[in-house]
Design goal:
Elements (H helix, E strand, L loop, with lengths): L9 H12 L16 H16 L3 E4 L5 E5 L9 E5 L13 H16 L8 E5 L13 H6 L5 H5 L9 H7 L15 E7 L4 H4 L4 E7 L1 E10 L16 H19 L3 E4 L3 E4 L9 E10 L2 H22 L3 E9 L2 E2 L2 H13 L4 E6 L5 H4 L5 E6 L15 H19 L3
Parallel strand pairs: 3-4, 3-5, 5-14, 6-13
Antiparallel strand pairs: 1-2, 2-4, 6-12, 7-10, 7-11, 8-10, 9-10
Helix pairs in contact: 1-3, 1-12, 3-12, 8-9, 10-12
Bound molecules: zinc ion.
């Protein structure tokens, strides 16, 4: 057959996404499928069943990463890989991650039913704990697989209830026998929703990011002095929450002050004892800094750190700062990025060359093999929320681009 005419089945892709959206469905139309939860297990079970239905060889590694392999005509060649993650944020959306897994599955189903042969083998993957919301940091299992993070470090991460990653992996039955260690890969494509407003704003269907911004995470701990709020005069208070409030605004002003392309966010805060009539004596909050320029992001952090220390000293609230995680910016393989743009054009879809502000497993894959991503529009630019949405026609378009990028790449010499 003329492979250039081949298309994925958009209705089937939609059905798969709708089936997955039932697992951990939330009342307002989102999903909550935290990594290594019972919902994650159910989604994995269904995914594995679907892989086996189309004769893919399924491997599960010691990080719970799930791989499905389709042989090539020259089966010793390194595989072309594609995938994403089935886990979600708390009260997250129905497309983040799962679109890339179901999109790659739909490609595999299309190849299977049309008996398409490819030179390189092809592999689909579900990476464990991409989100990092139950167990920080994010993208931990692609990081271990890529050889950037230590397996035992990942196993030891704990959730808010003190449960360990390693134990939860065993509990849901997905600690597999295969070592989580990279093998040669010919290329990796990750299909994902944009999670931002650019594509919708510019009325484009397909986004081809030139890479992913660096991602730097910090944790700040403040100690104040608790006291009854009524009798304690305003002077001489050591109010940890007020110190945090100043620090949060300093973080928010940081990009303006630094100039250049940078974003800085405080997204999580815990206040102790969190009582209306006690002066707060313990606050923890997070700082997230992202930029295309790693040095600029670090320089910004150094400025912010001085500010935070100054605020803490002035308010008498001792500060502890943990530099939790730094993932460098990831420039993708230009040849593959161009292929995404060209393929979109050949299929009649408009496209945009852009950057990804969100982190993805593609960051770590980019350290293993030539990597690119395919984005489709997020309605209203919203993501990590229950109203996260993408038009079904765009889901189909992205999967068709993925299909043809994978076909071209799998037939390369
Ligand atoms: Zn994602």
């Amino acid at each position: 057959m003329d492979l250039s005419k081949l298309r994925i089945n958009g209705a089937r892709l939609r059905t798969s996404l709708e089936e997955m959206a039932k697992i951990g469905a939330t009342p307002n139309g989102g999903v909550q499928r935290l990594t290594l939860s019972d919902e994650d297990k159910r989604a994995r079970d269904l995914f594995v069943k679907w892989l086996k239905e189309i004769d893919l060889a399924v491997t599960i590694d010691e990080m719970g990463n799930i791989f499905g392999r389709r042989p090539g005509t020259e089966d010793n060649l390194p595989p072309v890989m594609s995938g994403s993650h089935v886990d979600s944020q708390p009260k997250g959306g129905r497309f983040d991650g799962i679109l890339g897994v179901m999109g790659a599955l739909e490609v595999m189903r299309t190849l299977h039913e049309n008996k398409v042969k490819t030179r390189h083998p092809m592999m689909i993957v579900d990476w464990t704990n991409e989100e990092g919301s139950r167990f920080a940091p994010a993208m931990v299992s692609s990081g271990v697989w890529a050889g950037v993070l230590e397996r035992d470090y990942a196993y030891g991460r704990t959730d808010i209830n003190g449960k360990k990653f390693g134990e939860e992996l065993v509990r849901i039955g997905y600690k597999g026998p295969a070592p989580a260690a990279k093998w040669p890969v010919h290329a990796y494509y990750e299909y994902h929703i944009e999670q931002g407003p650019m594509l919708e704003g510019q009325k484009k269907t397909i986004g081809a990011p030139k890479g992913i911004l660096c991602l730097h995470w910090y944790d700040i701990y403040l100690t104040g002095e608790a006291n009854q709020v009524g009798p304690t005069p305003m002077e001489g208070r050591h109010d940890a929450l007020c110190a945090a409030a100043e620090m949060i605004l300093a973080t928010n002003r940081l990009p303006d002050r630094m100039g250049g392309n940078i974003v800085a966010t405080v997204g999580e805060i815990q206040n102790k004892p969190n009582s209306r009539n006690i002066i707060p004596d313990g606050v923890h909050f997070t700082v997230d800094i992202r930029s295309w320029d790693d040095d600029h992001a670090i320089k910004a952090w150094e400025h912010l750190k001085i500010d935070l220390q100054e605020i803490a000293a002035r308010r008498g609230t001792p500060i502890r700062i943990d530099e939790t995680w730094r993932c460098p910016h990831a420039p993708f393989a230009e040849r593959l990025v161009q292929r995404v743009l060209d393929t979109a054009g050949e299929l009649g879809y408009s496209s945009l060359h852009m950057v990804s502000g969100a982190g993805h497993d593609a960051s770590y894959m980019n350290q293993v093999c030539p990597t690119a991503m395919i984005f489709v529009p997020s309605i209203g630019g919203r993501s990590h929320v229950e109203v996260e949405n993408t038009a079904w026609s765009d889901c189909e378009a992205g999967a068709n681009v993925l299909l043809h990028c994978l076909l071209k790449t799998a037939d390369e010499h």
